[in-house]
Amino acid sequence: xxxxxxxxxxxxxxxxxxxxxxxxxxxxxxxxxxxxxxxxxxxxxxxxxxxxxxxxxxxxxxxxxxxxxxxxxxxxxxxxxxxxxxxxxxxxxxxxxxxxxxxxxxxxxxxxxxxxxxxxxxxxxxxxxxxxxxxxxxxxxxxxxxxxxxxxxxxxxxxxxxxxxxxxxxxxxxxxxxxxxxxxxxxxxxxxxxxxxxxxxxxxxxxxxxxxxxxxxxxxxxxxxxxxxxxxxxxxxxxxxxxxxxxxxxxxxxxxxxxxxxxxxxxxxxxxxxxxxxxxxxxxxxxxxxxxxxxxxxxxxxxxxxxxxxxxxxxxxxxxxxxxxxxxxxxxxxxxxxxxxxxxxxxxxxxxxxxxxxxxxxxxxxx
Amino acid sequence: xxxxxxxxxxxxxxxxxxxxxxxxxxxxxxxxxxxxxxxxxxxxxxxxxxxxxxxxxxxxxxxxxxxxxxxxxxxxxxxxxxxxxxxxxxxxxxxxxxxxxxxxxxxxxxxxxxxxxxxxxxxxxxxxxxxxxxxxxxxxxxxxxxxxxxxxxxxxxxxxxxxxxxxxxxxxxxxxxxxxxxxxxxxxxxxxxxxxxxxxxxxxxxxxxxxxxxxxxxxxxxxxxxxxxxxxxxxxxxxxxxxxxxxxxxxxxxxxxxxxxx
Lengths: 367, 262
Ligand SMILES: Nc1ncnc2c1ncn2[C@@H]1O[C@H](COP(=O)(O)OP(=O)(O)O)[C@@H](O)[C@H]1O
Ligand SMILES: [Mg+2]
What we know:
The structure holds two protein chains of two kinds. Chain A is α+β, with helices and mostly antiparallel strands. Chain A has helices at residues 45-53, 95-105, 110-123, 139-151, 169-186, 197-203, 221-226, 231-236, 354-357, and strands at residues 5-16, 19-30, 34-38, 60-65, 68-69, 80-83, 157-161, 189-194, 206-211, 214-219, 241-249, 252-255, 258-261, 271-277, 283-285, 292-301, 306-312, 315-321, 330-334, 341-344. In chain A, helix 5 (169-186) links the parallel strand 7 (157-161) and strand 8. By secondary structure, chain B is mainly α. Chain B has a domain at 54-226: MetI-like fold, CATH 1.10.3720. The radius of gyration of chain B is 23 Å and the shape is globular. The mean pLDDT of chain B is 88. The chains are: A alpha+beta, B mainly alpha. At the A-B interface, strand 6 and helix 2 of A face helix 7 and helix 8 of B. Bound molecules: adenosine-5'-diphosphate and magnesium ion. Adenosine-5'-diphosphate binds at residues 16-17, 21, 39, 41-47 of chain A.
C-alpha cells in the first residue's frame, strides 16, 4: 500500500544574496515516516526545514501539506512544529510553562493543560521537573523540554534541526534510541536534520542525502549504504573503494584489470561506470591465482577493526578486518558479486538526474 | 604597601572634593542663620518653609508629572524603535544607531535652542506640551540604548519558536520579546526618569509659565539670592537620589549573585 503523502516540496528554489542555496528540491514526506535530511554543513538542510516550517519562503516552487498549497500560510497556522537547533526554550518561563505554551495560546482550560503537560513530561522522562527553571537544565534535559513543548499540540509533522548536535557521544546514542522509540509510539512524521551519517542510518526510514542544495539520493538506509547512486553518496556514507570500470553487459563488469560477475543490470553495453566496494566487504586471504593480489602498505588499529591499505592493480584498496596482516606481505583479496555496486558515471561527478534519485517502488515497503 | 596608602589618600581627596560642597549645603540647611558663614543654631524652619512655599511645591509637582509622562512615552517609543532597528539589515542598523547617538553627544544647549526654534516655527505655545515633547526627545535615545543590548542577547530562534507554537506577530511581541527585554525596558525607563528630573538646560528653553520645573525654580531663586530654603530642597533631593542609587545597586548585586549561580 502506498503511504499517504503528507508534505510535498515541488521544484523548490531558494537563493540568499544571489547565491543559490536550494536548486530545485523535490521531496515527498509520507505519513508516519522518519525522514532524515543528511548532508555536509551548508548544503541547505536547515533552509529546507525552514521552508516546511514556514520560516522561509521559496523563491520559486510550491510546498504542499496534505494536498493543499501552503506557500503563504504563516508558521503559526501550520500543523507542523519544530525543535530548533539550539532548543530556543523561553528563559523567562519554567519547564511547565515552556511545555504549556502552545496550549495557553489556545486558551485551553487549566485542568487539561496540567494533564497534557504531565503526559508530555512523562513521554520525555522529565516528570517532576515542572517547577525547574530551564536555564539550570543540562543539554539533554533542555532537549527533552523542547521536544515536549513541540509535541504538546499534536502536530502532524515534527521538524528537528540537528537536535542532538550539542550532546556528548553517550547521551547522543541514548537520545537516538529514545527519539526513534518516541516517533514509533506517537506515529508522528519526523523530518530530522543531521550531518552525522551514522545517526541518519540508525534512526531513519528514509534518508535524503543532500549536497550543494541538490538532493543526491533518496532511499532506505540500506539502499543508501549498499547502492549509492554517485560517488558523493558513496564517499559521504562511510568509507568506500571507488574504482573506474566498464560494464561489458548485464551482470559482467570489468575493473582492476579483471572481469567480475556482479548483480547489476540495466547499463548500456560497454558503458564506463564507477564501481563501489565497501571496505568491510573485502576479505583478505592468501594470495592465489583467482584473487586480486597486492602488497599491504599500512595497518591502523581503529578499535573495532583494523584499517588495512593494500596496493594492488596500481590503486590503494581500503579494507576493514578484525585480523591484521603483516605490513609488506603479499595478500589476496576476494569479494562476492553482491558486494560489487555499479554506479553510472556522470560527467564531472554531477549529481544523478532527478528521476533516478528516488526509486518509485521503494517508498511502499518502508517498515 | 606604600602604593596602597597613596591610592587611599588619593581616593579620599577625590571624595572630599566631590562631597564637601554637598556636605556644606546640608549643614547649612539646618543653620538658623540666613548667612552661610556663621552657625547660629540648629533649626528645621527652612524645611517647614519649603513645604509651605507654593511655587516650589507646584514646580516639584510639575517636574514629577513631566518626568513621568515623558518617561512612559519615551519608553514605549524607544522600545518600539529598538525592535525596528534590530530587525533592519546591518548597514541600516549601524546608520540609525549612530544617528540615535547624536542627540546624546550633542551639547544640551544646542538641543535646547533648536527645540525652542522648532516650537517657535510651529507657532506652538510654550507650556507643558513643549516641555514634555522636548523631554521625550532626549529620553528616547536612552531607552533605545538600554533595550538594544537585551535584544541582541536574545536568542533569535525564540521568536520563531513562539510563532511555531502558535503565536501571531502581536503575541510574539507580548509573550516573548517583552518579557525577555524587560530589564532593558525598566532601566531605560529609570534612566529617562532620572534625566528628565535632572534636566535644566533643555527645559530652560522649552518651558512655559504654566510648566515651570523644579530646576528652573531653583535657578530663578538663586538668581536673586540663595535662600536657605534652596539648601533644604537640595538636601532632600540629594538624599532621595542617594537612596534610589543605593536600592538600584543592591538589586543589581543580588541579580549578579543569582546569575553567578547559574
Ligand atoms: N538567512 C540567511 N541569509 C543568508 N544566507 C543564508 C541564510 N540562511 C542560510 N544561508 C546560507 O545558505 C546556505 C545553506 O544554509 P543551511 O540551510 O543553514 O545549511 P545546513 O543546515 O545544511 O548547514 C549556507 O551557505 C548559509 O550561509
Ligand atoms: Mg543547519
